[in-house]
Amino acid sequence: MGLVPDRSRKILSARNANFPWALRRFAVCDLDLYPELGQPGRGVLVVTHIANITAWRDGKNADGSTAAWSGDDKTVFKDMWCRIVSDMWSEQHRITTGTANAMSGIVDIGVIFDLKISEAMAAADHSHVNLEVTKVEFGQPKGAASNTGNVVNIGVKGCSLRGIVGGGPVWNDSARLRYIDIFPGNDLGGTAVAHEFGHMLGYRDEYPSAPWQRNDAWTGDTESIMYAGRIVRERHYTLFAAWLDAQYRRRGPLWKVNGRTDITNAGI
To answer: How many CB atoms lie under 10 A from the CB of residue 264?
Structure first.
């Protein structure tokens, strides 16, 4: 059974939390800290991220016919986006501190991700990223434009779905993403989706061929989620530890990932 927050006892809350230590700094996500149900001294940090689909665009099949979205296609796209990111980023590490720095008795915090996706939200509605999604036939070339962005493969029945990620007033211009391709039965797809979500949180690419905003400290860590692997490292939770420290304007990193890693030694 996963972490269960006691939602009747909220300890901290931030709508459009800022991460001034990261690539993407403003309105990154919503954060809520609760006690963990039935576990004294333990807490659950809930990371809520809301994506807004601004357009479902039809593409082309190999024979030139229109690749049109069905209602089922849209449902699968939304469900898989939320499930893959949550599964790969949730409950990977603990964020801990000493008893002298406890918040409402909490000294040990787990993290879970609550992904939400909606459509055609108004400019004043609450979201963190905009998506335009174009459907193309499975196996078809995505065109030269897709080579300029990030390609993602997820399993979806018999078709591939291309999403353009970015835009909207809440995005940092320097952290804008481009293309997401979703197609069937490719296990690497989950890895790629989770990697792109790491950029949405503010983490940089860690592979050596990244053309811009590369993190040269970790270009040898091929198993990292921000390289081409599947592992969310301790350093990829340090923004949440830093946010916890910032809530009390404390000096120095008092909350650390697994008791040892923080933004001063994570190399992010």
So the answer is: 12
Closest CA relative to residue 137, chosen from 164, 165, 117, 156: 156
Kindly report the number of other CB atoms within 10 A of residue 40's CB atom.
9
The pairs formed by 141-144 with CB atoms below 8 angstroms and a separation of 24 or more are: 142/179, 142/181
SS3 per-residue string spanning 130-189: EEEEEEEECCCCCCHHHHHCCCCCCCCCCEEEEEEECCCCCCCHHHCCCEEEECCCCCHH
User: Whole-model pTM above 0.85?
Assistant: no
DSSP conformational letter for 257: E
CA distances from 107 to 12, 40, 96, 102, 218 (A): 14, 9, 6, 5, 29
What is the tens place of the pLDDT at every residue in 210-265?
A: 877 799 999 999 999 999 899 999 999 999 999 999 987 766 679 999 999 999 99
Angle value at C-alpha 240, between 235 and 241, nearest 5 degrees:
75
CA 111 – CA 103 distance, rounded (Å): 16
For every residue of 103-132, DSSP letters joined together read: BTTB-EEEEEEEEEEEES--TTS--SEEEE
Alpha-carbon distance 4 to 42, whole Å?
11
Q: What is the pLDDT of residues 57-81, one digit of tens each?
A: 777 777 888 878 888 878 877 887 8
What does R_g of the chain's alpha carbons equal in angstroms? 19
- Inter-residue contact 33 to 13 (CB < 8 Å): yes
